[in-house]
Design brief:
The chain is built from 6 helices and 15 strands. A hairpin with a 7-residue loop joins β6 and β7. It binds uracil. The site of uracil has 8 residues, from α5.
């Protein structure tokens, strides 16, 4: 990981403040002053800033495009799960998925060992937008139904009342629609569609806090590190930037 990013991840300042410090010779790696912010460091390196040892958290952030038919779990004896897609050298890094997608939902999952970011991304306090692309069967959405979704409503599909927060529905055609949620109740998209007598046939999460995967499923199964811009989107959305 880049030196400036690792220091920023450790909460020592903004990336531009840290680049400034690095270029002025305030940072040493293994006893050598490093003035290049893009210098590559790892968690075994010993780093000092202004002569003080830095306890680098070295958090890791990945984007997994979950295929349909994979459990959102790090371990399962019977079914394919996320761990099957994580390279061996990362298996000791205490990574876990942020929230969960149903077994039959594909799409964007953040996988990290940053507990604070994970907590905030899932907390209703930060209202982090998540966009789903649903393929469904049923009558076309009416303007009235879309307005009910937009204002929030009470659902009783489990035998008790539960509030569904306001969400944005945008129909594409009679079989496809985008739904943006800012909370994460279990099976929420499928339950919202079912409430209006529509059955979700396929579901894909395509965006979270501005971080995107393709709408098509061609990249399903890919696991890669978040770019710095993507990480910044998540940090901004959760008040951590
Ligand atoms: N809503 C659902 O119904 N399923 C998911 O996997 C995510 C949101």
């Amino acid at each position: 990981m880049r030196l400036d990013r690792l220091l920023a991840n450790s909460g020592l300042g903004t990336r531009s403040q840290l680049r400034d410090k690095i270029s002025h010779g305030s940072v040493s790696v293994n006893g050598t002053v490093i003035t290049d912010s893009s210098f590559h460091v790892s968690e075994t390196d010993s780093i000092t800033l202004d002569g003080q040892d830095i306890n680098c958290k070295n958090n890791l952030y990945f984007l997994f495009d979950k295929p349909d038919g994979v459990l959102t779990a790090m371990e399962d004896k019977r079914l394919p799960c996320i761990a099957d897609y994580i390279p061996d050298e990362l298996k000791t890094k205490k990574l876990s998925p942020v929230g969960r997608l149903d077994y039959h939902t594909s799409g964007l999952l953040i996988v990290t060992n940053d507990g604070e970011l994970s907590h905030r991304l899932q907390s209703p306090k930060y209202q982090v937008p998540k966009i789903y692309l649903a393929t469904y069967r049923g009558l076309a959405w009416t303007d009235d139904e879309t307005a009910v979704v937009a204002s929030g409503f009470t659902i009783r599909d489990k035998g008790y009342a539960e509030e569904i927060s306001p969400a944005e529905l945008k129909t594409i055609d009679q079989e496809h629609a985008y739904l943006t949620l800012r909370e994460g109740k279990t099976h929420e998209v499928r339950r919202i569609f079912a409430h209006f007598n529509k059955e979700v046939l396929e579901l894909r999460r395509i965006e979270l806090a501005g971080v995107k995967v393709t709408e098509g499923t061609g990249n399903c199964g890919s696991f890669r590190e978040l770019t710095e811009d993507e990480l910044n989107l998540l940090l901004k959305a959760t008040g951590m930037a």
